[in-house]
Amino acid sequence: MSEEGGGLVPEQDADPKDALLPKQTTETEAGCQRFFKSLVFVFVAVPIILVGSTFLLGWNETRAVCEAKAIKEGAGKTTEVGCNDSGVHDGELIMFQCDIQKEGLAPLGFPGTALQNLNVRGTGVAVKVEMLQCIETYHKNKTKDTLGGGTKTDTVAMYHAEWKSGPAPRFNYRASDSPSWIQNCGADNPPWPEELPANRAVYQPEVKVGGFVLSGDWVKKIPLHTRVEGLSLPSYFTPGPEGTYQANAWAQYGSEGIGAVRMTVTTNDWHDPTVTVLGQNEGGHIEDWTASSSWMCAGYTLGHLRPGEIHKDELFAAVVSESQIVTTILRGVGFLLVWFALSRLLEPLQVLADFIPVVGPHLGNSIETISCCVSCLPATACSMLVVGVMWLFLRPALGLSLIALGVLIMFGLGGFRFSRRSKAGDVEISPA
């Protein structure tokens, strides 16, 4: 019952269909607030992004050239040796293909956890523990007001169960009474078991490969991808499919499996113990080899370990390919950052256009699209100029070509803009 006009009137019953709808929250942002934020972004964030992307592009090109020089020098200095040649070619860059020695390796486990007595004999042992947990995601729909330049954001919280190798947030769900939460979760996430590590790996301090000794980070280069079965584990673990182990000790009652645990334990592959090693021989111990220093290039090293038997040419081709892939990815990231920063320069104008009644949001969207398209060529030119300047000190011919191309694009854009203004100035308006 509720009061209305001094009397009580019966309340309307809630529509049962409403209980099946996702829980939605709405946030609004005033046009003036948007305009202020756009100014802050243009005058603070954009310069930071441009400086950061310029540094990234320059550093990446320097790294690419220096690594190429180091790889080329290393390929010419590498001596292929046998598995028992640890006493020769001391202080030199060597390469060999030998078997990992199992003798003398101590059994490994994870001290202080329920897995401390795994007793796995390998170069290392890795464990991956995952728990089925309730994950909250948000679906947002942002719309512009037809008057005033403000925005409205409708947020719907959705839920799903997902295997996670670490604790997910507990409680404080935005819509724990929603159908999505009830159907897909049904219970809060339990606390992560203190006796179980999440993702961890332990390694031997030293490993012998043929007559050579690997230690420290070199041991960590040996892949731990082979699953270990038949382990002695706490009673709450049972063998699962494909070499996994499962436990329901933390599963929540009445839920959709929330709290179930699965685990994999991996070590190196003893069925194929051969590895190919490229590094500097220091009295039988393998270390990273440092290339000769040159202009802008100092301290670049070579040190690689790959599973299996790989020939010298194949190994160096793979190293070159990996370096080129990293260079290409970082170039793309740098260019996209420059493009993004330049495309946001007109954001205050876009927000001001949104203030126009009715048609404002459409004008604002048009300005945003035009700004994105127009800024592509300037971003390309800026990226080429930065890359060209770095190559100018390392490979002058290529650097000059990139600089010339970047300047040509900039002059082309300037010439196009000047011609448009000239044509607009030549238009004569005849009197009525």
Q: What features would you highlight for this structure?
A:
about 425 residues, alpha+beta, 2 domains, five-stranded mixed beta sheet, 8 helices, flat, disordered N terminus
- Judging from the principal axes of the Cα atoms, what is the shape? flat
Mean pLDDT comes to: 86
Strand percentage lies at 15-25%
* Most strands sheet: 8 strands, antiparallel
Distance between the termini: 72 Å
Q: Structural class of the secondary elements?
A: alpha+beta
| Count of discrete alpha- or pi-helical segments spanning 4 or more residues | 8
Helix content: 25-40%
Q: Could you list the spans in which at least 5 consecutive residues all have pLDDT below 50?
A: 1-21, 427-432
Order of helices and strands: EEEHEEEEHEEEHEEEEEEEEEHHHHH
Radius of gyration: 32 Å
Beta strands, count: 19
Quaternary? single chain
Number of domains: 2
Describe the structure.
Helix 1 (31-77) packs parallel to helix 7 (376-394). By secondary structure, the chain is of the alpha+beta class. The protein has 8 helices and 19 strands. It has 2 domains: 21-68 and 325-423, no CATH class; 101-272, no CATH class. The strands form 5 sheets. Strands 3, 6, 7, 8, 11, 12, 13 and 14 form an 8-stranded antiparallel β-sheet that branches. Strands 4, 5, 15, 16 and 19 form a 5-stranded mixed β-sheet that branches. A two-stranded antiparallel ribbon has the order 1-2. It has helices at 31-77, 179-184, 217-220, 312-343, 347-354, 360-374, 376-394, 396-426; strands at residues 2-4, 7-9, 24-29, 79-80, 93-99, 124-144, 151-164, 199-203, 206-209, 212-215, 226-227, 238-239, 245-247, 261-267, 274-282, 285-287, 289-290, 301-302, 304-307.
